[in-house]
Write a structure and sequence with these properties.
By secondary structure, the protein is an all-alpha fold. The protein contains 10 helices and no strands. Pfam families: RecX_HTH1, RecX_HTH2, RecX_HTH3.
Amino acid sequence: MARAICLRALTGAARTRRQLADLLERRGVPEEAATAVLDRFGDVGLIDDAAFARAWVSSRQAGRGLARRALRAELRAKGVDGEDAEQALAQVDEEDERAAARHLVERRLPALRRVDRVTATRRLVGMLARKGYNGGLAAGVVREVMDETGFGTDTDEDSAGWDDADL
């Protein structure tokens, strides 16, 4: 029974040992039977937390633009231990994080054209924070992209009725 439950769970997607152990516990499988099946699956390579962590980090960082901090939390929640998680997170360096944050800001910025620069900055930094980016990196990337695109600068002097020389 435990073997069938695990095989069914692994058919849809890779799972960590802890995820499968939790599933077996919820299904009422005795601990000894669960341990034996999970050990055997680990021996034959059906359960590999390190490979799961590498694939998870690669997928979530590229697809969702998550920072290492958020990825670490997700791996911990899935039961990947510290060493396997850290090795997987080593795939993502500071430049990868910065590039992903920049991409997220560039993609979101056009939708914020109707709000002022302060509001847009707050929203963009908040978005990056929810994805695990630290405040310094988030603020720097947002400022950099806004400056490069000219976001929040009034290019039409007539629309305001005066220019900077009038101030």
